[in-house]
């Protein structure tokens, strides 16, 4: 694990070519970058893995084709945000959202989606490790991951990464449990 200061726009731009190949011809991939994103602290390869993983899942949710949008946002939380059982501290975040227009995830499955070995794919299609791995990686960067989904309409993953624009040594990312 090599956490470093990262510019999300740069990481995503460098990945675009690969992502376009991953989604294939039936799926339209769009990127929308916020102009004012601060730096985050994460392992670059792992962050790339998370994004690729979410994009592959989104693609697989749209066998007939559709659109995947990756957008970033500079977000200031003036109060802590409570969501699921998580408490996101107030402060500045770089948010990545991965949106698809796919089949969606039924409500009863949404709660379990970040658990190890949970998968909605048939035996042999997925390992069930994808989203729990993504969860672990996001946690190691001090971040948060949430999902919204509407069966028949699509799914959105929200990734919150705290901004790290202070001195390098002031950084104390959360250690993996
Ligand atoms: P939980 O999953 O039962 O986790 C309980 C506590 O175990 C967490 O308290 C945290 O201290 C530790 N923990 C669990 N998983 C990890 C991990 O992957 N890495 C690290 N470093 N520590 C871990 P915490 O953080 O107060 O979270 C309370 C509950 O809030 C969690 O219960 C979980 O249900 C939810 N939660 C926390 N972060 C997220 C998130 O990013 N996304 C979502 N969807 N839920 C979250």
Protein architecture, described:
The chain has 4 helices and 9 strands, in the order βαββαββββααββ. The strands form 3 sheets. The protein has a 5-stranded mixed β-sheet with strand order 2-4-7-9-8. The protein has a two-stranded antiparallel sheet with strand order 1-3. A two-stranded antiparallel sheet has the order 5-6. The protein has one domain (3-170): Heat Shock Protein 90 (2-Layer Sandwich). It is of the alpha+beta class and 177 residues long. The structure holds ligand C2E. Ligand C2E binds at residues 84-86, 114, 135-136, 139, 144-146, 174, 176-177.
Keywords:
five-stranded mixed β-sheet, two-stranded antiparallel sheet, binds ligand C2E, alpha+beta, 9 strands, 177 residues, Heat Shock Protein 90, 4 helices
In short:
With 177 residues, the chain is an alpha+beta fold.
User: Which second-level CATH architecture applies?
Assistant: 2-Layer Sandwich
- Helicity level, as a percent range? 25-40%
Summarize the main sheet. Answer: 5 strands, mixed
Shape: globular
**Helix-strand sequence:** EHEEHEEEEHHEE
Per CATH, the class reads Alpha Beta
CATH names the topology as Heat Shock Protein 90
* Separation of the first and last Cα atoms: 14 Å
Strand order of the largest sheet: 2-4-7-9-8
- Rounded to the nearest angstrom, the radius of gyration is 16 Å
CATH superfamily, please?
A: Histidine kinase-like ATPase, C-terminal domain
Ligands in the model, by name, code or SMILES, are: ligand C2E
Total number of distinct structural domains:
1
Rounded mean pLDDT is 89
Total strands: 9
User: Could you tell me the strand content as a percent range?
Assistant: 25-35%
The poorly predicted ranges are none
């Amino acid at each position: 694990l090599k956490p470093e200061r990262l510019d999300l726009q740069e990481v995503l731009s460098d990945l675009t070519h690969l992502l376009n190949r991953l989604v294939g011809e039936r799926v339209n991939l769009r990127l929308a970058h916020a102009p004012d994103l601060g730096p985050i602290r994460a392992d670059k390869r792992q962050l790339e893995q998370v994004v690729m993983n979410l994009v592959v899942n989104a693609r697989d949710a749209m066998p007939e084709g559709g659109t995947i949008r990756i957008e970033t946002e500079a977000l200031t939380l003036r109060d802590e945000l409570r969501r699921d059982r998580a408490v996101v501290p107030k402060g500045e975040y770089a948010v990545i959202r991965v949106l698809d227009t796919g089949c969606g995830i039924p409500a009863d499955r949404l709660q379990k989606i970040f658990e190890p070995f949970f998968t909605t794919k048939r035996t042999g299609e997925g390992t069930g490790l994808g989203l729990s791995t993504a969860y672990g990686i996001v946690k190691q960067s001090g971040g948060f991951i949430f999902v919204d989904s509407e069966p028949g309409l699509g799914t959105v993953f929200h990734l919150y990464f705290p901004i790290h624009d202070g001195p390098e040594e002031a950084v104390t990312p959360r250690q993996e449990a």
